[in-house]
Amino acid sequence: MILRLKENSKLYLFPAFLFLLCSRLSSQPRDSFAIASQFQTFNDFAVHEKIFAHTDKSFYIAGETIWLKTYVVYAASHQPADLSKVVYVELLDATSKPVLQTKLQAKSGHASGSLLLPAALPTGNYILRAYTMWMQNFDPQFFFAEKITVVNSFNRPDWPKLQADRKYSIELFPEGGHLVYGLENTVAFRIKNNDGSWLAANGFLLNRNNDTLANLESNTFGLGKFRFIPDESTSYKVIFPVGHNEILSQSIDSIDHKGYVMQLTRSGEDQLSVKVTTTNANVRESVYLLVHTRQRVKKVQASILENGSADFLINERELGEGVSHITVFNTERQPVCERIYFLHPSKAGIASISSNKNVYGLRDQVNLRLQLGVPAQPSGARLSMTVFRLDSLNRSASKNISTYLWLQSDLGNDGELYKDFVLDSHNDTVVDLLMMTSGWRRYKWADVLNNKTPVISFLPEYEGHLIRARISNMPGAERSVSGYLSIP
């Protein structure tokens, strides 16, 4: 009787063990898809807009008019947005206070208008900013911003005192967001002048005893990277000799004792390899990879950490064009590593532009022919053109719609200095260094994973301008008063 029970117990425990094992394995994709579902739900609740403003130039004399046309698109598709019907445009001074403001009526994502610069406007650099009422619910980094220079020829400018020496700074960016003791870490760096431009220099990685651990070299854009395994018994810093007998130094702080690191490398012509390592090499646990491009999930994958390491493969054809976000989650579905990757857009814009003459006389009519690129020739397109005098003062606007939508609108100000080079060049090394040194991110994963919906304080102006007002009785008033709204 006892022997029979043992035999039966073996027969029943074996399939039960298989059931538990299969349940454990099948839970991995379920967890990863749950993260993707939460992310998509969060984005579907609040549609994002982007704005690009095309100005006639970027250098003005006080009293001139800024002519502009704005394009409002959905952030996910870069197609014209029909959500907001009003575009707000303002000119900010050096203290970020508006000196001029106007509103433009938008139709099918397009709005045109102008700003008259007052004759008394002081000389200086200003920021032209454009946004919609709906965009005020989200980070101001999404607002369009362009530097505008204004010169007032009637007033003597209060020029700042020129500094004899430039000031430099070093910024360090661990790949994935964290440095961890005992693990190989990749650290990107950026060297900048006090005016925001880059600085090319060579330097060294030193420990506490000033022993040289690695030689550092930046490219012409002041960008570079190095790898090292930090040890808890010492400290680290990077130094760069610059200028005349000047040493630029930056200590490497905020190194974690436990955690995760990630490294992204190209493993083939179209293949990306993401390696995740952790300090706890004796525990088998699940890690999840989520890749999204412009609010749309492109890839979800689960893996098991074996001996503290896990690998993911990503085919570039699975990604969307432009900036993609790659996030790694641990077994508790908490984000532990994140970085961005840029895939060059392949769609052609305006393929060619030609004129009817090579030389024109005074007040001759100019006829231009624009040939739109393929594929997907549109039946009609809304365009804007800038005409400016080619001299030492006036120049074309610093932005164009292609570089802004594909790159800078997802990087914020980090992409300002390198945006033209990135789109014009296919130098993967420089492009990836720009991605590694752009630390700004769009999403707060705590809100996404806790199923928090964005706080909506501003309604979209779908049918036109919304006006809010409050009428209150004056002290001592005995009865209600009537209020009137007049729109000239």
Considering the chains and any ligands shown, give keywords for the structure.
globular, disordered N terminus, alpha+beta, 36% strand, 5-stranded mixed β-sheet, 488 residues
Commentary on this structure:
- A hairpin with a 3-residue loop joins β15 (236-242) and β16 (246-251).
- The protein has 488 residues and is of the alpha+beta class.
- The radius of gyration is 28 Å and the shape is globular.
- Helix content is 15%, strand content 36%.
- It starts with a helix and ends in a 39-residue tail after the last helix.
- The model is unreliable at 1-28 (pLDDT under 50).
- Strands 2-8-7-4-5 form a five-stranded mixed β-sheet, with no helix packed on it. It has a four-stranded antiparallel β-sheet with strand order 13-12-15-16, with no helix packed on it.
- The protein contains five helices and 26 strands.
How would you concisely characterize the structure shown here?
The protein contains five helices and 26 strands.
Helix and strand composition category: alpha+beta
Radius of gyration: 28 Å
Please give the order of strands in the largest beta sheet: 2-8-7-4-5
- How far apart the termini lie comes to 99 Å
| Percent helix range | 10-25%
Shape: globular
Mean pLDDT rating: 83
Strand content: 35-45%
Task: Profile the largest sheet.
Answer: 5 strands, mixed
Got a strand count?
A: 26
Number of helices: 5
Contiguous low-pLDDT stretches (5 residues minimum) are 1-28
Task: Tell me the layout of helices and strands.
Blueprint: H1 2-45, E1 49-55, E2 59-61, E3 65-74, E4 86-92, E5 98-105, E6 110-116, E7 124-131, E8 144-151, E9 168-174, E10 179-180, E11 185-193, E12 202-207, E13 212-217, E14 223-228, E15 236-242, E16 246-251, E17 255-256, E18 260-266, E19 271-278, E20 286-293, E21 296-304, E22 309-315, E23 322-329, E24 335-343, E25 350-355, E26 368-372, H2 401-411, H3 419-424, H4 428-436, H5 445-449
Parallel strand pairs: 2-8, 10-17
Antiparallel strand pairs: 1-3, 3-6, 4-5, 4-7, 7-8, 9-11, 11-14, 12-13, 12-15, 15-16, 18-19, 19-22, 20-21, 20-23, 23-24, 25-26
